[in-house]
Amino acid sequence: MTILLDVRDLAVDIPTEDGTVHAVQHVSFAVNEGEFFGVVGESGSGKSVMVQSIMGLVPGARTSGSVLFRDRDLLSLAPEQLRSVRGREISMIFQDPLSSLHPQYTVGWQIVEQIQAHEKVSAKAAKARAIDLLDRVRIPDAAARFDAYPHQFSGGMRQRVMIAMGLSLGPALIIADEPTTALDSTVQAQILDLLGEMRSEFGTTVLMISHDLGVLSRVADRVMVMYGGRRMELGAADAVLCGPAHPYTAGLLRSSSFNREPGTPLVPIGGRPPSLLAPPEGCAFRDRCPDAMAICGSKPPVRHYDDGTEVACWLESTPVEPDPPVLPPPSLLASPDDPIVKVDGLRLTFPQRRGEPRVVLDDISLEVRRGETLGLVGESGCGKTTLARAIAGLVAPTAGTVEFDGAPTANLDRAQWRDLRRRVQLVFQDPFGSLNPRRRVGSIIGDPFRIHRLASGAERRAKVQELMELVGLNPEHYNRFPSQFSGGQRQRIGIARALALNPELVILDEPVSALDVSIQAQVLNLLDELQRRLGLTYLFISHDLAVVRHVCDRIAVMEGGRIVELGTADEVWNDPQQPFTRRLLAAAAPEIPREPRDRILLPLTVTGTGAQQPAAGHPAAQHLADRVALEVVS
Amino acid sequence: MTRFILSRIAFGVLVLFLLSVFVFMLFYVSPSDPARIIAGDKATEELMAQIRTNLGLDRPITEQYVTFIGNLLHGDLGYSYRSSMPVSELVVSRIPVTMSLVFGGMVFWLAIGIPIGIVSAKHPGSVRDRLGQGFAIVGISFPTFVLGMLALYLLYFVPTKLGFTLFPPSGYVPFAESPLQWAWHLLLPWLTLALVVAAVYARLTRGQMLEVLGQDYIRTARAKGVDERRVTYVHAFRSAMPPLVTQLGIDIGLMLGGVIVIEQVFGLLGVGSLAVTAVAMQDRPVVIAIVLLGGVFVVVSNLVVDTTYALLDSRVRTATR
């Protein structure tokens, strides 16, 4: 097997106003020719910056180390030489195909441009090649679509265009940076399949970055796990994902909802990732690690297993499995006879300037039982958010009725409407966009009290701080601004605000999809706990079937404005009746089996790479020696 | 697209109609008496009454307005109170001067402002960027007449005193008479106008380019191996253009209604200087004509901007189709 891309000791520093961000800290890995290499990490792990700096695409970045690609060091190439590598020998596919394609040029023009940037071919020949490529990534009617603009394509089709463009010059390596994250799950599966197919057809090597372990487990041959700008674990995909040797990898798997039995709480990784401005001396994961030891304060060595797995960790045994958090028993048990919301024959259409009115919701009948969590799943544009808004009384239906707690929500007077606003609350998807950045957190959470004139002054403040405590925020942060909180904490702010007035129904619109896996688990557990303690009813909207299965009692599957299937989470998951549900399920991330690995940790002295090796006499080496000695004695 | 343009034209006509009502009302409520201005201080009451009857000023305002609009639709804007010349002739004779000034100046301010903005945005924080921004601040903060006088002093007065003539001090030579003389006479006003306006374009270009250069599709272009010049001009500048076109449309539309200060400083008999004398003399028909003319220019340039916008941006194009 030949090595195609050999990254050695790569460090990337980015100067910013706050100081230098050490985005990538001395990472080494090698990608073999023809393989599918996955890089997994949460936001801020440095994975995107790493591959983009290899290509010279991060403005202002300072790099050190070496990146060997076909006997050349990409980091020391002149700009013009690097330009000729980009797009021709290594091409990239980015996360959001809409923003990654130029909105004002046709897709055909953009593919032709790439061909002509590297080869002297006539416009006509380049166009023929572009059409052929569009055809090969299965864009229907490629010749006609050549002249279409990116906004005239759907998300999945746009990503196909990006892939066609990436393949246009038969590159040796394709770097795909979260290529499916912005797409619906069924489309996601199609794009992954296409990438795999193209890989065998064109003989291309793929380096794919993802935050999603489920996605990588499906396609990758080998996987590298990154955290805090460093390499944590590297090895064959099944070895790393089924039998993680690093506590961080193990923690990620435990907090992924697709990997846990429904009903069992997730085991989140506590705390938050380290600052890249001042990276810790020792292990970057130490503060959040359940296996942390005193020695973790010094730089961990790279340990080798005989199955080829490499781990940067002092731990020599399998990582511990911390117990899941114990949740209080539910204070309210849902029963079919006690619905809080009754939707009957709901229909919603929008008039269009020309032609038939657009049907957004089509004859929907549904009950939400008091105390349950009802999941609404479906692809983007299927009407799930609109249905939730109709249930909340925020949009008036064209036909049909919505009853909340036995009373219809149509034609309410002012007081009743206000009352409904108090009893039904919403939590939104984007914790960054849905909080006003110029307002203090205390006043954001206190808004409901102000609007409904329920509390003011010191009383309001006390209530807000109580809420902050309830959702796990430090009440002393009352006067901070949203920008001073992380994504997960911001979502807690949104939850605290929603809970302020003791609502009965909380509509959660994709509450965790903008969050990292380890943070998702924290928020999902919080929601579960709050529901048990306060007897809340949740309407949980998500495109992620794994999350929905994990948290919901019942699931309603929506397609094209209709509910095509409704049943308990188990029924829908194990015995789907509708083809659409089956498609959704097939596209959802598979469970990764946990297998104990039968492998041998090679002794440090034999395999050490020198740089990672604690020198003899170093306190770390001494500590290790003591430990080994102790274990031998006991 | 045709439908879009037609609706914009209809809207423009409505704007002009409202504008005409508005200026008409303004004069009706103003305390000055045109008859007094025409006849002079020593005129008798009878003479003034005679004048009012001749001008139709003794009739109700609605009737006056209807007559005015009727005449306007026949291309008749009436006669100047002061010079007794037909207003249309008076105004039309001034338009070439102002047009020459504005469109010539535009070439200069675009040629100065846009490159400065692009270079600044490509190297933010660099010495070039700071020089460019410094230039913009100076251009924006200098009063136009000071710049104009300075240009006259340095490029006309000083050389002439030393015995050679670089530029003529003032005046206008029609293009048809001598293109060379035309350009030579207009060069100083052009440069002065360009210095004032280029600053706005430099800043606007810089801001737009900085935003666009941070977009994902610029990263895609680089990842494709497109060379940096092409990334800058074909990819980034293309996206940065629409706001520049908008600004240009507004500026041109406004300026064609008269570039008052520069016309005065350089003694150009354009629409702007006509407006100044007409207002000072209470020459009602001329003022009304100039206001409407300005309105027409603004409406037309906006129409051109909107159409260009649709041509520049495929998304607008499909939305308006």
Automatic annotation (TrEMBL), chain A:
InterPro entries reported for this sequence: AAA+_ATPase, ABC_transp_ATP-bind, ABC_transporter-like_ATP-bd, ABC_transporter-like_CS, Oligopep_ABC_C, P-loop_NTPase
GO biological process entries: peptide transport; transmembrane transport
Record Gene3D superfamilies: P-loop containing nucleotide triphosphate hydrolases
Superkingdom, taxonomy of origin: Bacteria
One MF annotation (Gene Ontology) recorded for this entry: ATP binding
SUPFAM superfamilies (alphabetical): P-loop containing nucleoside triphosphate hydrolases
Occurrences of domain ABC transporter (ranges): 5-253, 341-585
Keyword Repeat applies: no
Keywords, sorted A to Z: ATP-binding, Nucleotide-binding, Transport
Pfam family, one: ABC_tran
Family: Belongs to the ABC transporter superfamily.
Record-linked NCBIfam families: oligo_HPY, PRK10419.1, PRK11308.1
Name of this protein: Peptide/nickel transport system ATP-binding protein
Organism: Agromyces cerinus subsp. cerinus
UniProtKB/TrEMBL annotation, chain B:
Family: Belongs to the binding-protein-dependent transport system permease family.
Places the protein is found: Cell membrane
Record-annotated membrane-spanning stretches: 9-29, 95-119, 131-158, 182-202, 254-280, 286-312
CDD domains assigned: TM_PBP2
Every ABC transmembrane type-1 domain range: 95-305
Record's protein name: Peptide/nickel transport system permease protein
Single GO term (MF): dipeptide transmembrane transporter activity
The entry's keywords: Cell membrane, Membrane, Transmembrane, Transmembrane helix, Transport
Organism this protein belongs to: Agromyces cerinus subsp. cerinus
Any GO CC annotation of this UniProt entry: plasma membrane
Topology in membrane: Multi-pass membrane protein
